[in-house]
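Re: weekly structure request thread

Next one in the queue (281 aa):
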Amino acid sequence: MAGPILITGAGSGFGKEVALRLAAAGHRVIAGVEIIAQVSVVRAEARERGVELRVEKLDVTDPGDRENAWTWDVEVLLNNAGVSEGGATADIPEERLRRQFEVNVFGPVLLTQGIARRMAARRSGRIVFMSSVAGLTVDPFTGAYAASKHAVEAFADALDQEMAEFGVTVATINPGPFLTGFNDTMFETWKEWRDDPAGRLHDYAALSFPHEQYDPEPVYERTVRVLLGEDRRYRHLLPVEMEGQAREQVEAQWSREVNDGRRPALVRKAYDIAPGTPVRE
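Done, posted below.
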C-alpha cells in the first residue's frame, strides 16, 4: 500500500479501535481527531498498546483542516467522523439540525473531494463511508441522523460510479445498533437544546434508544477487511443477521399506508426500554 490509511473521527468509537488495530498490524495509519485535546489522548493509548500511530487534528467541518489533509497523499480514506442528533422532527432546533448535516454530510464530502482527485490522478485508491443501517431505514426520533446517512448513501453510490474509470473503489459500512455509547447519547442531545421545553411534542427525559444493542466486535473486524481490500462487497450491513430485516423494511415502503393515529410500536418501546440494553444471546 503506497500511501497511508486516513481514518476520520478516530478520537473514539469505531474509528479509534480500527485505527489502533490497523497500526498494530503494521499499516501506516493517520488517525484524524476532531479536537486538539484528543491528539495526546489517542497517542497515549497507542503507546500503551505498543503501536506506531500518527494522530492529527482533523475536524471535517474545518476548511483549514480539510486542506491540510489533502496534502497527505492518502491511499485509503475511511469517512468515519459523525454525530447523532436525536429528537422528533417537529422538535429539533434549527442549529442542531444544521450541525447534523455539517458533520455527517458536508464535511466528509468536501474532505473526500480533494482526496478523491489525488486518487484519480494516481489511478488508485479506496474510499469507505461509515454509514449506518439508518442510511437505509428510519426509526422514530432518529430522523435527522437517518436523513444525514441517507444523504451519505447517495453520495457514496454516485461517487462509486464516477470514480470507477480512475481506478478508485468506494464502499459503505452500515452498522446496526451496536453498544458503543453512540446510540444512547443520541437520546441525550436534547439537554443542549436552546428552546422552550413546554413547546416540545415528546418528553425526552423519558425516551431511550429503542433497540437492544450488539457487541461492536463485528464492525471492527469487517471494517479492517474492507479498508485492506480483503472484502470486495460495496455494502456491508452489520450484524449480518439484520440484513434480512432491513431488506424487508425497505421493501415494505412500497405497500405502506398512512398511519392509523395510534402510537407506533417503536415509539412505545423508546418510552419503555432502558438505555444501553444489550442483545440477549
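The chain has a mean pLDDT of 97. The chain is about 40% helix and 10% strand.
Next request, please.
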